[in-house]
Amino acid sequence: MVLVEVILLSVVLLLSVAYLFLRERHSFWRKRGFPYKPNPSLLFGQMQGNGTTRHAAYVTQEIYNYAKDRGERFVGYSFFFMPLVMVCDIELVKTILVKDFAVFHDRGMYSNARVDPLSAHLFALEGHEWRALRQKLTPTFTSGRMKQMFGTMMQVAEELHRHLLANIGQELEMKEILARFTTDVIGTCAFGIECNTFQYPDSDFLKYGKRVFEHKLLGVVKMTFAMLCKDTASKLGVKVTDPELEKFFLNLVHETVEYRERNDVQRNDFLNLLLQIKNKGCLVEEGHTEQPDSLTGLTMNELAAQVFIFFVAGFETSSTVMNFCLYELAKNPDIQERLREEINRAIGSNGGELTYETVMGNEYLGQVVDETLRKYPPLETTLRVTVQDYTIPGTEHVIPRKVGVQVPVFAIHRDPDHYPDPECFDPDRFTVEQCKNRPAYTFLPFGEGPRMCIGMRFGLMQIKVGLVTLMRTFRFFSTDRTPDRIEFDPKSFILSPIGGNYLRVEKL
Q1: What is the pTM of this model?
Q2: Helix 143-165, helix 174-186: angle, nearest 10
């Protein structure tokens, strides 16, 4: 009986301590006299329903609108029990991402190169490690490098074209088809490996690419813990990468690198550029003298981590952008026809030849892609973390060191003050005149400042090559299974539609 009483008393004590801890955390901003969103849930803060019934984009948009309705430039809230600041004022967004970048150069992502090598990639690294790696990798994504990969990408696009020709007149689930296309592109341009997922849909590349975005309970718990308690997670050696996923990518990279170095294989792909950095410390251009040998190259694990994030970033985000774009084009046939005419006109004026310049320089195609990225930014939020106490300009409010600052990209893109009638799909928002009249930093699909997406050029080229290939030959129609309004999958941390995207495809 005494033992039962002791156990009950211990449970009550633990629950009481947990309750007091959570209540204290939720009063973080109120005690500092900071503008804040009231009435947080005890367990979830303001993130009630996030990941279960609602996508984070909707939750973030509600907090953003709450602050805007009260005339606040920023607002504090509870992300579970972690205090965050959401920035709503565009000038303050610019200050954080660019002007005061020295204070906000880290994303607050978890990485541990020692026990979790694939987590130590450019997107997650911090401080000096990030700067050194960014400097090495920046030359790999110039327009000249992208142009070298264009021919390879067009060969993959031919497979996409053939697959749709074989399924003319049918209702197709485009999300899956476009995922195969981007898998083949990344496999070829990153690894130099022909995945052929249209012929072999059970490809390991496609399987493991999807696995990155699967939400397994243990993985979600570990990732959440690692994000909320980074220092503790590092000391404990928490591993957030799926072990099978890690084994697949590490083995693939090791085997491919060994084969290339043993046989002196040269290809116009990402891995070939990384091998130059691994062995020489930097990229050496033809006709230029080599850099000093003292420059540090990449270890095999560092190389594997960069290939991994290149695959992850290029596989899912590009396919979802194309997917959303086709959805909108099917819903807006007048825009679809205009895009097709503009593409055909550009190719015709180039003697019928489809070149890198024709694809990347097409003005209306750029507007269509930008409007898709406005309405459906792959990452709904950009996060930064303070490296020191930071006084918000023009106020006495201080954001403490190591506190996250959120730029709500999705909410800014759907703010009617910046984009009137934001639910309407209107590529003419991105004419040169319209862009000049709109404040800077209201369009942030790739982030902004020194830490903006390094692979932006590659992602845009992949999206545009895919769309040009589809528009030249096919017309897309909505069906009874095409929703009037897309709902985002709450289990996906990027914007992804629930239930796929079914469209009818007809040959022109």
Answers
A1: 0.92
A2: 140
